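Quiz preparation item.
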């Protein structure tokens, strides 16, 4: 398993009239978690795009456990439990300290510039194999 942690401070613009974080505001946080994990693995998303590969979201799930509010500092914990082959599934927790605020997952497929499904680039597959072997 690979894991990354990203801290985010909730901005006022991310809240609704009730003072809670608007549900749509969580999606960019997941993106930050996902791109941070890939970068920490030595596979920045920017490099994948430069090589003509994209990872659109094909499925998403999000469950809220506790409300998040303006100025909270939250940690987005991003986990990759299985070595990706054709698709990549990431699991997330949004936490305020020890308190679980939300859980989520995203499923992504590799596509090329024309939008056709493709296999990931060889260096990506090799790096993931290396990382998962080291993680045991």
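Solution:
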């Amino acid at each position: 398993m690979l894991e990354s942690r990203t801290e985010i401070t909730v901005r006022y613009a991310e809240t609704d009239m009730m003072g809670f974080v608007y549900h749509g505001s969580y999606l960019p946080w997941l993106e930050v978690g996902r791109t941070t994990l890939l970068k920490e693995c030595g596979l920045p998303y920017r490099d994948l795009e430069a090589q003509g590969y994209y990872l659109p979201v094909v499925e998403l799930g999000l469950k809220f456990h506790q409300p998040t509010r303006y100025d909270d500092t939250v940690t987005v914990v991003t986990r990759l439990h299985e070595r990706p082959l054709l698709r990549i599934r990431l699991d997330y927790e949004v936490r305020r300290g020890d308190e679980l605020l939300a859980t989520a997952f995203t499923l992504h497929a590799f596509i090329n510039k024309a939008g056709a499904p493709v296999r990931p680039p060889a260096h990506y597959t090799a790096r993931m194999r290396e990382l998962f072997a080291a993680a045991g």
